[in-house]
Amino acid sequence: MSESSERKEVLYCGVCSLPPEYCEFLPSRKKCEQWLKNTHPSEHERLYSDQAVADKLAITTLSEDKEAKEAAKMEKAEQKTEARMAREMEKKMASKVVIKRMERNKRKCVTAVFGLHVFGIDLKSTAKMFASHFACGGSVAKNPQGEDEIVVQGDFSDEIRELIMKKFPSIPAENVEFGTEDKKKKKK
What we know:
By secondary structure, this protein is of the alpha+beta class. The protein has helices at residues 29-39, 41-48, 50-59, 64-94, 123-134, 157-167, and strands at 97-103, 109-114, 138-142, 148-153, 176-181.
């Protein structure tokens, strides 16, 4: 074993979370390269300068046909990745967060929040935040459709909407709506 065990600092890409040397093999190569150029110009120069590219090409043993096919394959994969990300963003912007007030017993009610999972929000920690903020019970439960939703004891629909807008600015205000679930009263 060596006497000097120095700690090495490893740089990880902010886009794909791999070391920058591996970014060139991913579909998000252009975005990774742009991130590296903006945040670490010296590292970008080391990996993507004309000399570095020429050195890599000298080592490469692919024929020109294979190289063209590989480049076309990478371009197609990159386009697919961009299209998938665009579809996900479109789906996210079209999704709604629904806040419902449901009557439990005569004077008791619960507030259910559905649709936060689409925006990448952890439901369990959000339910805990709601419970501690409103000093009531809060949990994650399955709704009749089989999807997870946050259930908070009490009528906090307006306050929950304000808290969602404050804590999660990634959710557009027009995507948060109120829903009502009224039970029909029994006639005596």
